[in-house]
Design brief:
The complex is a heterotrimer.
Chain A (H helix, E strand, L loop, with lengths): L1 H17 L4 H13 L10 H27 L4 E8 L6 H13 L3 E7 L3 E8 L4
Antiparallel strand pairs in A: 1-3, 2-3
Chain B lengths: L1 H20 L8 H26 L4 H27 L7
Chain C lengths: L1 H20 L3 H25 L3 H13 L1 H16 L1
The chains are: A alpha+beta, B mainly alpha, C mainly alpha.
Chain lengths: ~130, ~90, ~80
């Protein structure tokens, strides 16, 4: 199932780049997409992918809210925390998780440990 | 109407740009500056692109592509820079 | 729209100044990443003010592939530092 998701992603980028929905362009796009190598690693379930994509959509307003928060009140303290990775994540989903954490302005992933932890750098409000 | 809205987006983007780029001048750690840059370069530029989108809606495919690549590249670059710069003095690398 | 362009150039001066002043490699990389994004945004805005979409296409392409070079460079610098 993720195979089709991958195809849809590539085709989406192609159509956005060319902005042309004529038959010739569709045929070129589909053949190029099928021709590109497809990495067939262990595939995650479709439900995990959909929930990750939904979380990205929710992350955009969240990022703007956090941006206003750190603008209006100075966040001076820097802390490093560890966060647990949900079990059985494929590399694609780990990438999406890292993207999600780093996209919001208050948190940045520093490192992904193989044993299932993200090292996250956060800024917080100081006590003063 | 649409012009006013897009001007609002531009103004918001510029506020984010200046606020986020300003810490580059100070003496803070790289990671702290990265937080500011993710406000400026990702969120600020995204709101400028939204403003442009309101000006010229007929070019939406390329502008949407610009927005997606802006979000992905800046986030990934932030992660890579944080990872590379911190593992230099990291202990368990 | 010209006020927007002026503000962009003014914002662009900050990372350029940092890139010239700082000696630390990673601070420089940070400044260059910022410069790359800001310049391509300026290209997009210029293309809209001049109503010349060819320029805009160039801006979008730079935005979508230009940062890859910086990422590779960061990895290389890390390797060099480790050895």
């Amino acid at each position: 199932m993720t195979f089709y998701l991958n195809l849809a992603l590539r085709l989406g980028i192609w159509f956005l780049l060319t902005a042309d929905l004529s038959w010739a362009n569709i045929i070129i796009g589909v053949s190029v997409v099928l021709f590109l190598p497809y990495a067939s690693t262990s595939s995650a379930s479709l439900r995990d992918w959909l929930s990750a994509l939904w979380k990205i959509l929710k992350a955009i307003p969240q990022a703007y809210i956090e941006a206003w928060e750190i603008m209006l009140r100075p966040h001076d303290q820097e802390v490093i925390t560890m966060e647990r990775v949900p079990p059985r994540r494929t590399p694609g989903l780990v990438f999406l998780d890292i993207f999600l954490i780093t996209f919001t302005p208050k948190t940045i992933v520093l490192k992904y440990h193989e044993r299932g932890w993200y090292e996250v750098h956060k800024i917080q409000r100081g006590e003063g | 109407m649409s012009d006013g809205l897009s001007n609002l987006c531009f103004a918001l983007g510029m506020i984010f740009w200046f606020w986020g780029t300003w810490p580059l001048l100070g003496e803070r750690t790289i990671l702290f500056k990265l937080h500011g840059l993710s406000v400026a370069d990702t969120l600020g530029s995204m709101s400028v692109v939204v403003g442009l989108l309101l000006r010229i809606p007929r070019e939406w495919p390329l502008l949407v592509l610009a927005m997606i690549s802006l979000a992905i590249w800046n986030t990934v670059l932030g992660y890579v820079l944080a990872y590379c710069s911190s593992s230099r003095e990291g202990s368990d690398a | 729209m010209s006020w927007l362009l002026m503000a962009m150039v003014a914002a662009l001066l900050i990372p350029i100044y940092t890139a010239c002043r700082d000696d630390d490699t990673w601070q420089k990389m940070l400044a260059f990443a910022s410069i790359a994004t800001k310049t391509s945004m300026a290209i997009l805005v210029v293309s809209v003010t001049r109503d010349d979409w060819m320029v805009g296409v160039v801006g979008v392409i730079i935005l979508s592939v230009g940062n890859a070079a910086l990422m590779l460079l960061a990895h290389i610098i890390k390797r060099v530092n480790e050895s």
